[in-house]
Amino acid sequence: MRTTVRLDEKLLKEVKRHAAESGMTLTAIIEESLRERLARKSGRNKARASVRLHAVGKGGLHAGIDLDDSASLLDAMEKTD
Question: For residue 80, which phi and psi values (nearest 5 degrees)?
Answer without folding.
Answer: -85, -10
